[in-house]
C-alpha cells in the first residue's frame, strides 16, 4: 500500500511546531505561557469605539500593531491575516506580510468563508469555502502565508449537535486540512462548540469529546499528516445560562481531560481558546492547563486605547497592555 500522506514540508513543520519547544519565549507553543496569535479581525470592534469601519482605518490600526517596537518580537509568534490584510502595506509601501516575517513572526491566513445553514437540522451550520480553496492556498503560499485557519461551529441543546452536523463539520475540516497540506500550508483545525445555552459542564465535556473524536477520525480518513497540523479547540465550559457555576479548576480539568481522551499525541500543538470571565480569573482557569495547551485570549483594551489616533503614546499604551497582562492578549 503506497504512503497516502502528502510529502511533509519539514522546514515549515519545524518553524511552526518544533522550534517553539527550543525557544520557550516565542512561537506556537504547547508548554509555555508566552505565545500570542494576533487575529486581524476588526469589523465588530471599530464601531463601539467610534471609529468608522473603513479599509483605511483597518489598515492604520494593523500598521500600529505591526510597526510596534521590538518588545512584541519576544511574545508574538504568529499572525492570522484575512485576505484584505495580506495585501495591505505600511505608509512606506512595505507589505504587512513581509514586515512581520522580517521580524521572525509567522504569517497565517483565514481561508474559510463563514458558516451557512445545514439543511435538515435544527438551526445547525456548516462552513463554506472549499470551492477554489486549493488555488487560493497556492496563491497565499506564494504571497507569504505559512499556515491557515478554518473555523467550524457547533452548538449544544437538547437535540444538538446532531450526528449529521458532527459528521459534516468534521469532514469539512479534514478536507480543508488536506488541501492546505497539499499546498505546503500548515492547517489550524478549529472545531468550536459555542458556550450558548444552559448545558452543564459535564454535557459540554461529553460533546467536546465526541466532536474531537469525529474530527480526528475524519483527518485520518483524509490522510492528513497530523504532525503538520495544529488544533484550536474550545475551552470546556457550561452554557452561559447554566444555573450551576463552576470553578476555574473544574473548567480547566474538564478541558484537559477531553483533550487527553481524544487528541492523538502526534498533534504537536493546541491553541486553547480561553474566554475571559470575571467569575473565573484567566490565571486560575488555565493553571491546570499550563503544561497542556497554548493560550489564546481575546482582549478589547488595545482597541479602546487606540480609537483611531496614530501616535507614539497610543503605541506605548497597546504595548503596555501586552506587558501588564503577561502578553496573553490578542490585539
Structure characterization notes:
By secondary structure, the protein is of the alpha/beta class. It has helices at residues 10-22, 55-66, 83-86, 96-101, 133-142, 163-182, 201-221, 248-262, 282-287, 301-306, 312-324, and strands at 36-39, 76-81, 106-110, 115-117, 125-127, 147-154, 186-193, 230-231, 271-273, 294-296. It has two domains: 35-110 and 275-330, no CATH class; 116-273, Aldolase class I (TIM Barrel, Alpha-Beta Barrel), CATH 3.20.20.70. It is built from eleven helices and ten strands. The strands form three sheets. Strands 1-2-3-6-7-8 form a six-stranded parallel sheet. The chain has a two-stranded antiparallel ribbon with strand order 4-5. It has a two-stranded parallel ribbon with strand order 9-10. The radius of gyration is 19 Å and the shape is globular. It catalyses: beta-D-fructose 1,6-bisphosphate = D-glyceraldehyde 3-phosphate + dihydroxyacetone phosphate. Keywords: Glycolysis, Lyase, Schiff base. One of its GO terms (molecular function) is fructose-bisphosphate aldolase activity. One of its GO terms (biological process) is glycolytic process.
Amino acid at each position: 500500500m503506497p504512503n497516502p500522506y502528502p510529502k511533509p514540508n519539514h522546514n515549515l513543520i519545524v518553524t511552526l511546531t518544533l522550534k517553539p519547544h527550543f525557544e520557550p519565549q516565542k512561537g506556537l507553543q504547547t508548554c509555555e505561557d508566552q505565545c500570542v496569535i494576533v487575529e486581524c479581525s476588526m469589523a465588530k470592534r471599530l464601531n463601539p469605539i467610534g471609529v468608522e469601519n473603513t479599509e483605511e482605518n483597518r489598515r492604520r490600526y494593523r500598521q500600529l500593531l505591526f510597526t510596534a517596537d521590538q518588545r512584541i518580537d519576544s511574545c508574538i509568534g504568529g499572525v492570522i491575516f484575512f485576505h484584505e490584510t495580506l495585501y495591505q502595506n505600511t505608509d512606506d509601501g512595505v507589505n504587512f506580510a513581509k514586515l512581520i516575517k522580517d521580524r521572525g513572526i509567522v504569517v497565517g491566513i483565514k481561508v474559510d468563508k463563514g458558516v451557512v445553514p445545514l439543511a435538515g437540522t435544527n438551526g445547525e451550520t456548516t462552513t463554506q469555502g472549499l470551492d477554489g480553496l486549493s488555488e487560493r492556498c497556492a496563491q497565499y503560499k506564494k504571497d507569504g502565508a505559512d499556515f491557515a485557519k478554518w473555523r467550524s461551529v457547533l452548538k449544544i441543546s437538547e437535540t444538538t449537535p446532531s450526528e449529521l452536523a458532527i459528521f459534516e463539520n468534521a469532514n469539512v475540516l479534514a478536507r480543508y486540512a488536506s488541501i492546505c497540506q497539499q499546498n505546503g500550508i500548515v492547517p489550524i483545525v478549529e472545531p468550536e462548540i459555542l458556550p450558548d445555552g444552559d448545558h452543564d459542564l459535564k454535557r459540554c465535556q461529553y460533546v467536546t469529546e465526541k466532536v474531537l473524536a469525529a474530527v480526528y477520525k475524519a483527518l485520518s480518513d483524509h490522510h492528513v499528516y497530523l504532525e503538520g497540523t495544529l488544533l484550536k479547540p474550545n475551552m470546556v465550559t457550561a452554557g452561559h445560562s447554566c444555573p450551576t457555576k463552576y470553578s476555574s479548576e473544574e473548567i480547566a480539568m474538564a478541558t484537559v481531560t477531553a483533550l487527553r481522551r481524544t487528541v492523538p499525541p502526534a498533534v504537536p500543538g493546541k491553541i486553547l481558546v480561553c474566554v475571559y470571565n470575571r467569575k473565573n480569573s484567566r490565571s486560575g482557569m488555565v493553571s491546570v492547563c499550563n503544561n497542556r495547551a497554548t493560550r489564546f485570549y481575546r482582549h478589547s483594551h488595545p482597541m479602546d486605547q487606540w480609537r483611531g489616533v496614530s501616535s507614539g503614546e497610543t503605541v506605548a499604551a497597546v504595548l503596555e497592555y501586552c506587558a501588564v497582562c503577561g502578553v496573553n492578549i490578542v490585539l
